[in-house]
């Protein structure tokens, strides 16, 4: 049975694209890691239901909401990143709140953050951050890798010095923070039948 198209998706095709990418990757991971979609995205049952209904109604048949949990808990590290994102929100919409949770959880994964969101390129992540978390995006003027930037921001807020080098340009680990973030999209790997974490 064909689901009705989402008006929200037509109103903001980019956000619809982001949510569809995240849902596709999350569903794949939940399948082979024997977890739930909510655990992969840090969204509870109600949040997942609303997100899917608004932005990807065709996915309703693919998600077993009955097996999703009513609450999602974050560990201390995740909670700090979530708070950082919350303080940097560009608006009070539910969508931005959901994205803060998703970005938090996906930041714990091993690849570049854009890949762990299922996005096509790093530029898409940059656009997402600029539109939804502009205060953080404005501070990342040198285009530090986003996961590194989140942790650097947390350290600065706590008054810690993250690095011993006097400046980034003089640091021997410069490439780890600012190096190339090219690579293959996780969804492209899935389309070839490869698990997204391989």
Structural account:
There is one protein chain. By secondary structure, this protein is an all-alpha fold. The protein contains 12 helices and no strands. The protein has helices at 7-11, 13-32, 37-41, 45-55, 76-87, 94-106, 113-116, 122-132, 134-139, 146-157, 174-178, 186-191. Helix 5 packs antiparallel against helix 6. The two termini are 33 Å apart. The model is unreliable at 1-5 (pLDDT under 50).
Strand content: under 5%
From the spread of the alpha carbons, the general shape counts as: globular
Oligomerization state: single chain
Structural class: mainly alpha
Distance between the termini: 33 Å
| Poorly predicted regions | 1-5
Mean pLDDT: 84
Count of individual beta strands = 0
Largest sheet: none
Number of helices: 12
Radius of gyration: 17 Å
Q: Give, in order, the helices and strands.
A: HHHHHHHHHHHH
Please give the share of residues in helix.
55-70%
Report a brief summary of the structure.
The protein is mostly helical and 198 residues long. The protein contains twelve helices and no strands.
